[in-house]
Amino acid sequence: MEKVIATLPGYARSFCMRSIHHRGTEEAPGLVLALDAHEGAACTGVALRVAEDQEAAVLDYLRERELISSAYIEEVLPLELMDGRRVEAVTYVVDPDHVQYCGGEPLETQAQIIARAVGGRGPNTEYLYNTVAHLVELGIGDEDLEWLVGRVREIAG
């Protein structure tokens, strides 16, 4: 498997999906990240390439995991790899018409939700902290997420 830092133009990493099972409940939804279309935006993350003989199994796994609630749409989108290559990649982006979509919430509102929500997989704070820690390990900065970490820690105590 090949793992490369890549940028997806036209999308932003955003807490734009209500979580009613994993990081919140129907009564008190949490928030999870998704790739949300925004003109002029670009999201840096990790692109993975698997061996051809594993491609079908990996796609089956991803489709089962990502398409279970119809909140995400599978698209093949252009990526710019850190080493200069440009590739097309299977990508899962948020469906802005889905009932759980909540894009455009102010960061303060996101912080208030994340600081308090808990779901079947644990506190929403844990999801935020783990995500940002992983991005830091990869050398990927995200000002909004870093601000959220600080603000959520203030709120959560």
TrEMBL record:
Q: Is Lyase found in the keyword set?
A: yes
> What EC number(s) has UniProt assigned to this enzyme?
4.3.2.7
UniProt-listed InterPro entries: ChaC, GGCT-like, GGCT-like_sf
Q: Name one GO cellular component term.
A: cytoplasm
User: Can the keyword Lyase be found in this entry's annotation?
Assistant: yes
Q: What Pfam families does this protein map onto? A: ChaC
Give GO BP annotations, semicolon-separated.
glutathione catabolic process
Q: What keywords are assigned to this protein?
A: Lyase
GO MF entries: glutathione specific gamma-glutamylcyclotransferase activity
| Top EC class, one word | lyase
**What is this protein's name?**
glutathione-specific gamma-glutamylcyclotransferase
